[in-house]
Amino acid sequence: MLLSMLSKGVVAEIHSISHPQEDMQRQLLALGFDPGETVQLMTRAPFGHALQVKVGATLVAIHSDDASHILLRD
Questions:
Q1: How far apart are CA 56 and CA 72, in angstroms?
Q2: 7, 14, 16, 55 from 66: Cα distances, Å
Q3: Phi, psi values for residue 31, rounded to 5°
Q4: From edge to edge, which strands make up the β-sheet containing 38-44?
Q5: Host domain of residue 42
Q6: For residues 1 and 6, what is the distance between their CA atoms, to the nearest angstrom?
Q7: Would strands 70-72 and 38-44 be described as parallel, antiparallel, or unpaired?
Q8: What tens-digit pLDDT sequence spans the chain (74 residues)?
Q9: Which pTM was predicted?
Q10: What element of type H or E holds 56?
């Protein structure tokens, strides 16, 4: 499942990140989106374009297009 498809309140573990833009890949890793880290969808903005995600103990806002490149474990 992709992070962009995660339901609100559900906790999942990051499996991998494969963003086609190398600079965004590095930025996601710098924000804590590391394989093995837990994520939880806190809120979804109207129209679903932005997500507020808890990564470990940190709250991060991420665009749903970028979240679609983060694969979660089943």
A1: 14
A2: 16, 14, 13, 15
A3: -80, -5
A4: 58-63, 50-55, 38-44, 11-17, 70-72
A5: 3-72
A6: 7
A7: unpaired
A8: 999 999 999 999 999 999 999 999 999 999 999 999 999 999 999 887 899 999 999 999 999 999 999 999 97
A9: 0.92
A10: none
Pairing mode, strands 38-44 and 11-17:
antiparallel
- Could you give the number of structural domains in the chain? 1
Say if CB 39 and CB 33 are below 8 A apart: yes
Q: Tell me, what CATH number does 37's domain have?
A: 2.30.30.90
For CA atoms 21, 23, 27, 33, give the dihedral sign: positive
Cα–Cα distance measured from residue 23 to residue 12, given in angstroms and rounded to the nearest whole number: 25
Six token digits for residue 62:
């991420």
